[in-house]
Amino acid sequence: MLVGQLYRQVRNRFRQAGLSTPELDAKLLVSAALEMSVSDLVLNETDEVGFHGVELANGHAEKRLGGMPVGRILGEREFYGRSFRLHAATLEPRPDTEVLIDAVLHRSDPESPSLMCDIGTGTGAIAVTLLAELPRSSMIALDLSEDALACASANASSHGVGERFFPLCADYLSALGQAESSSAGPGLDWIISNPPYIRTAILQELSREVIQHDPNLALDGGETGLEAYVRIVTDAVHLLRPGGQIAFEIGYDQAGDVKKQLRHHGFGAIEIINDLAGNDRVVVARKM
Fold this sequence. Notes:
The protein is an alpha/beta fold. The protein has two domains: 3-74, Helicase, Ruva Protein, domain 3; 79-287, 3-Layer(aba) Sandwich (Rossmann fold). The chain has eleven helices and nine strands. It has helices spanning 3-16, 22-33, 38-43, 51-65, 70-74, 98-105, 125-133, 146-158, 208-213, 227-239, 255-264, and strands spanning 76-79, 82-85, 115-119, 138-143, 165-169, 188-193, 240-249, 267-274, 280-287. Helix 1 crosses helix 2 and helix 1 runs parallel beside helix 4. The longest helix is centred in the first third of the chain and has 15 residues, at 51-65. The relative contact order is 0.11. Residues 178-185 have low confidence and may be disordered.
């Protein structure tokens, strides 16, 4: 079988199954099976494929047709132009979260050293990306899962930011204490999080790709979907320096409630940022 024939065979199976991105999925899975880039898939479409390559590509296709996301099959996912290793204990990074990265970068000076904290770091996609883009910053990366922290640490090392990446197993901000920061004392410059925000009652309405392959711990936001925001904001006001900022990813209908929490705890300069689909996606605020 030729490279081009194998790709089209897999693509057609995905089309028939009604997958949302059959061409892209087929390109990623077949090119990975054949250990070539996606562009080489086109350039080498008349090359012969060995038995092992065909078997591996078909195995990938079967997993995809069974509902496994491409990233889980390959064990990695691209985010903000970088590849991140995945683990069963981590959420698969989504393109929508890149809005959160942009929001922080647009409000940060890459020449100024900042102490940042990423809550629920998972793969470390947020933390590692910000460290890579802000070379004078340091990051405390919190997660309740030791497995997730190991995955994030590996990603930090592979992207050359491991020396500025400090993993800590903790439940939200509890391990950082409750000491008030002052204008003369230390404090965090940024607290950033993509916390669990799905209401418990609607978890089962999510796609099977999410339910079966993303950890529940990273999805379940409690009865209202707001539990994580309440906990983080309550502690953040004590840990941020004056003028320090906080940034959250939010659900499309949560901006009003998150803004109320922030105002209640004395935050100001609150901004709501939309994603490419026009939905509320990120909240940014400043400790006054």
